[in-house]
Amino acid sequence: MTILVTGGAGYIGSHFVCLALSKGMKLVILDNFDNSSAQVLKAIADVTGVAPDFVEGDVRDKALLTRVMTEKQVESVVHFAGHKAVGESTQNPLKYYDNNVYGSVVLLQAMAECGVRKLVFSSSATVYGVPEFNPYTEDHRKKPFNPYGQSKSMVEDIMEDACRADPGLAMMALRYFNPIGAHPSGKLGEDPKGIPNNLMPYITKVAVGELKSLGVFGDDYDTVDGTGVRDYIHVMDLAEGHIRALEYLSAHSGYEAVNLGAGHGYSVLQVIQAFESVNGVAIPYDVKPRRDGDLAAYWADASKALRLLNWKTRLTIDDMVRDSWVWQSENPGGYGA
Ligand code: NAD
Ligand code: UD1
């Protein structure tokens, strides 16, 4: 039986695909290359020795989805496909509701037509919004404050309603904290277009000399050193979380939301220090004003993932900064070079 992996050519999806193929799992990737390229498929083949089954197409194309599900005997779906830039979602919210929400509804409709009952969905810690308490547990109230976060929260609610209406469905929303790092082979990693918005890709672009200096967004938060604190998680640990989620769904029906995080945070300065000491590369930085919409500090209560999935993070911040740097230094231009 086959797993349909939407968005499997993207950053997180490609790492999941490598792990699943290395475990002998059968899958088909569906991606429209909106934010990725065919080079990723070559890298996956290189790392795993298996050329992944691939269909170029859009999750909003229901006829295509039902054809793929039928022809490939799809039994479960891991749904990574979507847009993820918070700033862009504020400028162009309809783009986010169309791809992230409407795309997920079409996927659920195709699954219903084809009798596919298991879904793992890429959600985000951003669904919680301003922390009422920290660490976030899964029953923390949801109040996202940008259209991207709202789109993730809406899809979660839709999944929950679908499961309530049909007790035979089995669906899990995985709320990722801050995924960083890369495949240990150095052949796959994060390859953002243009100037990165997120911390780790910005650091690696400074390290490789493409950008001059990192802007640290605020040093006057109520945190260990005044800079923002986040729960960073290695992308390979995150990939393993999806394998465990699929295992769980093979034995349980209904809807669950589960945090995937380490359960502790690091400040921006702590991440810079880890990067410098593990990799022996200096990261020049300047303190800048706070970034609009940033929160001071949050991390996951990861106990539900341990209880339900027998999953917890294994890789450390040193593994994350090392693997991010191996990927960037061996592929200074990303997949394009
Ligand atoms: P990514 O942009 O690297 O990967 C997404 C993939 O989906 C890309 O290959 C893109 O081409 C594809 N895609 C987009 N729209 C599509 C469509 N309509 N049809 C088919 N393919 C489509 O992003 P990522 O970092 O790998 O994130 C994967 C998922 O995890 C996203 O849903 C994202 O919102 C979520 N997420 C990411 C993070 C993060 O920090 N990276 C954190 C929380 C949640
Ligand atoms: C961002 C998204 C969030 C998403 C998460 C996934 C925003 C506002 N939020 O979260 O929705 O779920 O990615 O990874 O984009 N920082 C700097 N300089 C930089 C970049 C970041 O100091 O150049 C700081 C930030 O202020 C923050 C920390 O580094 O304290 C992490 O930032 P980032 O990697 O952008 O992630 P989040 O803001 O946590």
State the main characteristics.
globular, seven-stranded parallel beta sheet, two-stranded parallel sheet, Rossmann fold, 337 residues, alpha/beta, 13 strands, binds uridine-diphosphate-N-acetylglucosamine
What would you say this structure looks like, in words?
The radius of gyration is 19 Å and the shape is globular. The longest helix is centred in the first third of the chain and has 22 residues, at 93-114. Helix 1 (11-22) packs parallel to helix 2 (39-48). The two termini are 36 Å apart. The protein has a seven-stranded parallel sheet with strand order 3-2-1-4-5-6-11, with helices on both faces. It has a two-stranded parallel sheet with strand order 7-10. Helix 2 (39-48) links the parallel strand 2 (27-31) and strand 3 (53-56). The model has no long low-confidence stretch (mean pLDDT 97). The protein is 40% helix and 18% strand. It is built from eleven helices and 13 strands. The protein has helices at 11-22, 39-48, 62-71, 86-91, 93-114, 147-165, 199-207, 235-249, 268-279, 303-309, 317-330; strands spanning 2-6, 27-31, 53-56, 74-79, 118-124, 170-176, 178-180, 214-217, 229-230, 232-234, 254-260, 266-267, 285-288. It is of the alpha/beta class and 337 residues long. It has a domain at 2-182 and 232-263 and 297-311: Rossmann fold, CATH 3.40.50.720. It binds nicotinamide-adenine-dinucleotide (NAD) and uridine-diphosphate-N-acetylglucosamine (UD1). Uridine-diphosphate-N-acetylglucosamine binds at residues 86, 124-126, 178-179, 197-199, 202, 214-217, 228, 230, 268, 291, 293-294.
